[in-house]
Amino acid sequence: MLYFIALVFISHITSRGAGNKAYFLGNNQSPWYAVAFGMIGDSLSGVTYISVPGAVGNAKFSYLQLVLGYVVGYWIIGYVLLPIYYRTNLTSIYSYLEQRFGVAAQRTGSFFFLLSRLLGAAGRLWLAVSVLQIFVFNALGIPFIVSVSIIIALMLVYTYRGGIKTLVWTDTFQSLFLLMGVILSIAAIVSNLNMGFGEMMLAIKNSPYTQVFFWDPLPKSFFAKQFLAGVFIAVAMTGLDQNMMQKNLSCRSLGEAQKNVYWFSLVMFLVNVLFLCLGAMLYIYAEAKGIALPAKTDALFPTLALNHLGTFAAMVFIIGLTAATFNSADSVLTTLTTSFYIDFLWMDKSEASELSKTRTRHIIHIGFAVVLLLVIILFQILNDQAVIDTILKLAGYTYGPLLGMFAFGIFTTRSVNDKLIPLLCVLSPLLSYYLNEAAPVLLSGYQVGPELLIINGAITFSGLFLISKRRLK
User: Fold this and answer.
1) What is the spatial distance between Cα 247 and Cα 207, in angstroms, rounded to a whole number?
2) Are strands 415-416 and 468-469 parallel, antiparallel or unpaired?
């Protein structure tokens, strides 16, 4: 409860006198270092908080191959995308698609963002709340629907007025608690094993989990697949994602926004190393104490933290998971509101009064909170992990068309029939899905991994080229 009181207090301080410009872009006064630190939690959801350490048992440290690609992708964002966004003075990044292609492209890009972020946020929040429900809320006799409603209501309370101006600081606060959750969890394990820091590092080094690079080209763990996919995932899911870019656009200048992204890439790499070390220590602890491993790797961290490592570790885990969950979900309400407000309603170009615009913004913000709640309840009704994984996987396909559209717009000067773009952007994910399913049969056991995003984007790019023509000078 104290955690949420702190968030509401930060919101109260930062949202004073906040108008539409403060809500959307923080009056372009956000300090770059606060944005960079706050983006840690934005990039690491509650699912990541649980899944990355657990996956070490099977995938070892191969996740770092992807993270190395992220670092390169973040530098591309800083060097290529941010200058475009600042030069064209964007609030919604999908306004670029309207300037380059037309209204249909803008609304297609925005629709894919709305769909993927809404489903993604709902799925991540559902999974995180499910863990809290099992280990916390059930003991208090609070039903799932009530607990998730309370959580969304709390997010609504501290994002409703201040928007980005508030989120820059609440995300910084939550990223701090997320990092504390990881570091203190490692400390709790080391303490339980009566190890020192040097002994811990030696135990991790000598464990069977620290292999980073994998060179077999067929499995999903192949270095080239992971690294290249990491580059394009960072570009698409950060640089072409309104949720990740809106805070960057709230910095004082392009130079500060670039500094934010470059420093963030370094911090993000180090944070992921911490997560992987935590995963190795979880497995080392389970083996040392003779604890049977859970059937699902995602259950390893919560099981050990809440049932075996003591009260302190349990509290640290809950706070870290809460921070990771809220940090990645709360900004979604603001950025979904921004995209719908600008890309579909074009309220930024409306001649309506500021009061009318603010009222519209409030209605959209509350509306998306209700929709998010309904989608989470739907996931709970389905309660089928395979079905929900499929839904979230399909939502992930929407970043391919965004990658293809932005790449075509930036690296070519050809003109495209704007009205055909929505159809092309629907066909591209469908064809990508077919190739993903058929690849093991057609390519002698080849498994498509995260490089599917590259394939999806390339299909969109090629389709745009086929329906384009040279622009008349």
Assistant:
1) 40
2) antiparallel
> What is the model's pLDDT at position 390?
64
**pTM value?**
0.86
Q: Could you list the mean pLDDT of each consecutive 10-residue stretch along the chain, which spans 473 residues?
A: 72 68 72 82 73 87 92 94 92 92 94 89 80 77 88 79 74 83 90 88 90 84 86 90 86 91 91 92 91 84 86 83 73 86 86 84 90 89 64 75 94 92 92 80 68 88 91 56
442 belongs to a structural domain:
no
In a domain, 354, yes or no: yes
Q: How far apart are CA 163 and CA 145, in angstroms?
A: 26
Query: Taking the alpha carbons of 245, 247, 253, 257 in that order, is the dihedral positive or negative?
Result: negative
As a whole number of angstroms, the distance between CA 338 and CA 364 comes to 9
- Identify any residues that bridge with 348 across adjacent strands, giving them in sequence order: none
User: Which of 422, 429, 357 minimizes the C-alpha distance to 393?
Assistant: 429
Supply the DSSP symbol for 44: S
How many whole angstroms separate alpha carbon 231 and alpha carbon 237?
A: 10
Beta bridge partners of 445: none
What is the gyration radius of the CA atoms in the chain, in angstroms?
Answer: 22
Write the CATH number for 314. Answer: 1.20.1730.10
Cα(401)–Cα(299) distance, integer angstroms: 34
Number of domains in the chain: 1
Question: Is residue 415 one of the residues assigned to a domain?
Answer: no
Does residue 420 sit within a domain?
Answer: no
Range of the domain at 142: 2-11+28-403
Q: How far apart are CA 389 and CA 58, in angstroms?
A: 19
Classify residue 129 as exposed, middle or buried by CB count within 10 Å of its CB (0-12, 13-18, 19+).
buried
